[in-house]
Design goal:
single chain; 374 residues; alpha+beta; Pdz3 Domain; Thrombin, subunit H; six-stranded antiparallel beta barrel; globular
């Protein structure tokens, strides 16, 4: 019964999807952002920290009197550092994090563009160069020529607590530098809708055009980069379900791009779905959680190690894998060239394989799912 269930769900997944799947960022296995030729070799000036302005948080924030005046102060302080970002594929927001013109935004805002247009708060428009992007966490770095530009100070997202004030600034629906307020509704969120992890959830209004703008605490420190809103099946935004990439995660990517010119990620080479209790019950699976492989790339670490569609992975080394979020985090925490052990179950019973991770390719590797188009 168990063997038949695993085979049945693997076959059902293959037929139901029936489309080509790109290995890399689209598969939640990371990706490598390589800047254009003119950005190769760019490094911060001698003695200069790649990211300036991060303010260490000492202890927890104490409640402040006059919340309204606090919001006004934050808006006045940070709004000058919020920019508009216009690319070939659309437009969004960004935030200046270094006075010489380094801007944080979303990877999906810049798309594949190498050149973008940056609109400053003073009305000036500047050409921007995309130095690099990491689609696996939806972060991109843009550079403009400038000196003494207004900068938003960076906070510490690791110390965020549910219930703290959250302030979003961006350009929703082309309404420039709109300020909305709410709270941090949750931390460390994972959503299968857009395959991003460790997200900050907020009920501060985030709408199309807010993407790439800052999420701030009550002291005006950037704690996240707004990235998405979860929408209902009717296409209407679900109130209170906005998400931001934690600034600590975004800053790590920015540091890599500014110091080495690219983002290096480990690569496994699988496409998968989360195992849910409902799926386990319907198909008679032997586990209630994990990830079930629906495609394995040939000549990838996974393919070389003997993994195949229908395998259910439940452990990465000694770390339990209960969802795709756990799997993607394990990849982000691993270095290319390291050897890891994956364990799980397949129709024949439990299995364990060892594989050597490689560096994620600069361009996604496409492979059709079984039953899909050639």
């Amino acid at each position: 019964m168990i063997q038949q269930g695993v085979r049945t769900v693997a076959a059902a997944l293959a037929v139901a999807v029936g489309v080509g799947i790109g290995f890399g960022a689209a598969m939640g296995v990371g990706g490598r952002a390589t800047p254009p030729a003119w950005a190769q070799g760019q490094t911060p000036a001698k003695g200069q920290t790649p990211i300036q302005g991060r303010i260490p948080t000492q202890g927890r924030e104490e409640p402040q009197e006059g919340e309204e005046s606090s919001i006004v102060r934050v808006a006045r302080q940070v709004t000058p550092a919020v920019v508009s970002v216009t690319a070939d594929e659309g437009a969004g927001s960004g935030v200046i994090i270094r006075a010489d013109g380094v801007i944080l935004t979303n990877a999906h805002v810049v798309g594949q563009s190498r050149q973008v247009e940056i609109g400053l708060a003073n009305g000036e428009t500047l050409p921007g160069r995309v130095l690099g992007r990491d689609p696996s966490i939806d972060i991109a770095i843009v550079d403009v020529e400038g000196n003494d530009l207004p900068v938003a100070p960076l906070g510490n997202s690791d110390q965020l607590e549910v219930g703290q004030t959250a302030i979003a600034i961006g350009n929703p629906l082309a309404l420039e530098r709109t300020v909305t307020r709410g709270i941090v509704s949750a931390v460390n969120r994972t959503s299968s809708e857009f395959q991003l992890d460790e997200l900050i959830q907020t009920d501060a209004a985030i709408n199309p055009g807010n993407s790439g703008g800052p999420l701030l605490d009550s002291r005006g420190q950037v704690v996240g980069i707004n990235t998405a809103v979860l929408r209902g099946t009717d296409g209407i935004g679900a109130e209170g379900l906005g998400f931001a990439v934690p600034i600590n995660l975004a800053s790590d990517v920015a540091d890599q791009i500014l110091t080495t010119g690219r983002v290096t990620r480990a690569f496994v080479g699988v496409n998968y779905l989360d195992v849910t209790p409902e799926m386990a019950q319907e198909f008679g699976l032997p586990v209630q959680s994990g990830i079930i492989l629906r495609a394995v790339g040939p000549r990838t670490p996974a393919g070389t190690a003997g993994l195949r569609p229908g395998d259910i992975i439940t452990r990465w080394n000694d770390t339990p894998i209960e969802s795709g979020g756990d799997f993607r985090k394990a990849i982000r925490d691993s270095e290319p060239g390291s050897t890891i052990t994956l364990s799980g179950v397949r129709p024949e019973g439990p299995f364990t394989v060892r594989l050597r991770l490689i560096e994620a390719p600069a361009e996604p590797m496409s492979v059709p799912l079984p039953g899909g188009p050639p």
